[in-house]
Design a protein that fits this description.
Number of domains: 1
Radius of gyration: 16 Å
CATH topology: Aspartate Aminotransferase, domain 1
Number of strands: 8
Structural class: alpha+beta
Shape: elongated
Number of helices: 3
Helix content: 25-40%
CATH class: Alpha Beta
């Protein structure tokens, strides 16, 4: 096993542990298998759905960085606490990152892309998701 393979294996284990989730390695891409059940109220009806988070990283380099990507579905009332936890995490976002939203009246999709250590990305994101479970 090369040094980069050993480092990748270590990062995969760390990321899985931070998310309390299984990981899968497919074609050079690590996918985190984590889902979340949401209760959506709409027009006096309640819908319960389980959604898979879209969290992954790829292009792991010898420097320990990778291209990290996530799409997290939130209820509108969860958005402020989630973004507060992300922006106030002890590990700051790298200087170059992308974040955007897709919004409809009942769900907000928060999309994030960074190039940094997968462990840092996972730590920040797992902390923000934990806030929603409290």
């Amino acid at each position: 096993m090369t040094n980069i393979e050993a480092a990748l294996k270590s990062e995969v284990q760390k990321v899985g542990s931070l998310f309390h989730a299984e990981t899968d390695y497919q074609s050079g891409k690590v996918i985190v298998k984590k889902n979340r059940t949401l209760e959506i109220s709409m027009y006096n009806n309640c819908f319960i759905c389980t959604l898979d988070h879209d969290i992954s990283f790829e292009d792991f380099s010898a420097t320990g960085t990778a291209f990290n990507k996530a799409e997290i579905m939130l209820l509108p009332e969860e958005y402020p606490a989630f973004t507060y936890a992300l922006s106030n995490h002890p590990i700051p976002f790298p200087s170059h990152f992308r974040q955007w939203l897709n919004v409809n009246p009942h769900l907000i999709s928060v999309c994030l892309e960074t190039t940094e250590s997968p462990g840092h990305f996972a730590d920040r994101l797992a902390t923000a998701l934990q806030i929603l479970e409290e």
